[in-house]
Amino acid sequence: MKKLLLFSSSSSLYGSERGLLNLIEALYNRHKLIAVVPAKGELIEKIKRYYPEVEIKKLPLPVLALSYSPFYYFNLAVLSLLVLIYFIPFILNRKIDIICTNNLLLPVSALTAKIAKKKHIWFVREFFPYSLFNRILAGIVLKFSDEIIFQSYFIKKKIGITNRGKVIYEPLIENRYKLYERAAARKYFQLPGDKIIISLISRIHPNKGQYEFIKKFTDYFYEDNDVILLLAGDISFSSLRNMLYKRKILNFIRSAGNGKIIFKGFVAEIDKMISAVDICVFP
Q1: Per-residue model confidence as pLDDT tens digits over 126-155
Q2: Residue 282 above 90 pLDDT?
Q3: Who's near 47: CB < 8 A, 6+ residues apart?
Q4: What is the pLDDT of residues 214-266, one digit of tens each?
Q5: Which of 21, 91, 185, 265 could be a cystine partner for 180, CB 3.0 to 4.6 Å?
Q6: pLDDT band for position 83 (cuts 50, 70, 90)
Q7: Do residues 229 and 253 make contact, with C-beta atoms less than 8 angstroms apart?
Q8: Of 271, 270, 281, nearest in space to 200 by CA
Q9: Within this chain, domains 3-167 and 178-281 share the same CATH topology
Q10: What is the DSSP secondary structure assignment for residue 170, as one 8-state letter?
Q11: How far apart are CA 73 and CA 75, in angstroms?
């Protein structure tokens, strides 16, 4: 039985966190698992509910982002130093065998593994819109990873790592999801029963392109009273850049003013949401 330390950049419950739950599902009862999460949230609740033997450590983590705030970068450096100071002795004292970083946004966990001389597995689930930034991150991933797992071939291509890494698509754990009767699901979310509903389900982030999507939606469907767009998701941590992007989206929805775009914020009952709509888009 191995001891694994699993780092997550968020305590929300979006794609990468569901990927972490899939990893825990695969390893549970076979290895000792310790999950490190930055705050209270739905992820902790899911782990406690389905995987009570997983040890949880709740600590602030330095999550990489493109931010407009100088304070963010100062805070990133301080938190990175604190993570190194805390986790290197922790890893050695607890005899951790493998460290897993659940997405691209936590390079400090890879550095921690390198200093502690432990095997490191990096799950790469995202990329940035700037090729130079992707090349820098690719160099970090190559230098500090023993194993690299990409969520898709497209992500692997955008990051620019061609000679290493495996592509493993995320499965859905079928017994955790169920389909609901559409009318009941729409009533639950207070959605109109006689409209075609397109849902945009994701955490809100400038790299996801929700604002661009809703602008195009209004261009094509403004005159069509039978189609509405439902935006489900929220920012996962409050960087100034993310907050401004969310405000931009909400201002656009208010200015449209015709009820064709509905903002629901974070939705935990994702299976019920999928049951309520006609088309799902996952950016």
Answers
A1: 888 788 888 999 999 999 999 999 988 988
A2: no
A3: 21, 24, 35, 54, 56
A4: 998 988 887 788 999 999 988 876 667 788 889 999 999 988 877 889 999 88
A5: 185
A6: very high
A7: no
A8: 281
A9: yes
A10: P
A11: 5
pLDDT of residue 53: 96
- Percent of the chain scored above 90 by pLDDT? 56
Distance from C-alpha of 232 to C-alpha of 46, rounded to nearest angstrom: 20
Helix (H) or strand (E) holding 246: helix 240-256
Burial 19-50 (b: 16+ CB within 10 A, else e): bbbebbeebbeeebbbbbbbeebebbebbeee
Per the CB < 8 A criterion, the answer to whether 267 and 174 are in contact is no
Q: What is the pLDDT at residue 220?
A: 86
Each residue of 157-207: pLDDT tens digit? 989 998 899 999 887 666 667 889 999 999 999 999 999 999 998 888 887
91 token code pair: 């890893």
Give φ, ψ of 281 to 5 degrees. -120, 125
DSSP 66-125: --S-HHHHHHHHHHHHHHHHHHHHHHHHTT--EEEE-STT-HHHHHHHHHHT-EEEEEE-
Residue 242: count other Cβ atoms within 10 Å of its Cβ.
Answer: 20
- Domain 3-167 - what CATH class? alpha beta
| Domain locations in the chain as residue ranges | 3-167, 178-281
CATH 3.40.50.300 is the classification of domain 178-281: no
